[in-house]
Amino acid sequence: MKKIALSLTILLGALSASNATAFDGDVNAGKEKSATCAACHGPDGNAPVNIYPKLAGQHADYIYKQLTELKLGMTSGGKEGRMDPVMSAMAMPLNDQDMKDLAAYFSSLNMSEGETPKDIVDVGAMLYKAGDAERGIPACAACHGPRGNGSSLAKFPKISFQHPEYIKSQLEKFRDGVRHNDLNGMMQDIAKKLTDKDIEVLSKYLGGLH
């Protein structure tokens, strides 16, 4: 919980900054460079295969962060950043401007809407918006917002309308320590307290969160 509190403090500091630096990626250049991305993430940034994330409408700062850390994961042998057998290899040839351009392009697109199963709505809303104090689980909405739109400044991703299967896999990776590029280990700490049922509920709930 101390890590979570510290992260929220950092978030509030970031949001209160009066002079945020504009993201300098080029949308048109990013579109030209995105051809190889389309195979997994779709030509419009909405991945047709649900194990891959939708990139359309995601915060440019967050996409850029993930690309830089995926590349670092490969160059460090998984000791730093984020290591993914496929994406780390794809990020290797990208330079800093390539990453900014791709991030700007995908963030300019519209993410396709999803659906939340009716039997998940109530229990999912409770866990997402209120957490579970008895188990030390904070509300997801505290960082990702009531509508799951996240925060560009704090680099918290938009998670609403994301493929449930992808969200499920990432929560499991955080829980197992396979993915560890989260701010101050915050997502790892939270995910370790989630049961398989919790992860299933949250994943399905977020798929259709408006």
TrEMBL record:
PANTHER family recorded: CBB3-TYPE CYTOCHROME C OXIDASE SUBUNIT FIXP, CYTOCHROME C4
InterPro entries: Cyt_c-like_dom (IPR009056), Cyt_c-like_dom_sf (IPR036909), Cytochrome_c4-like (IPR024167), Cytochrome_c_Oxidase_Subunit (IPR050597)
Keyword vocabulary terms for this entry: Electron transport, Heme, Iron, Metal-binding, Periplasm, Signal, Transport
Signal peptide: 1-22
Keyword Nucleus: no
Principal location listed in the UniProt entry: periplasm
Superkingdom of source: Bacteria
Organism: Pseudoalteromonas neustonica
Cell compartment(s), UniProt: Periplasm
Keyword Lipid biosynthesis: no
Official protein name in the record: Cytochrome c4
Domain Cytochrome c: 25-110, 119-210
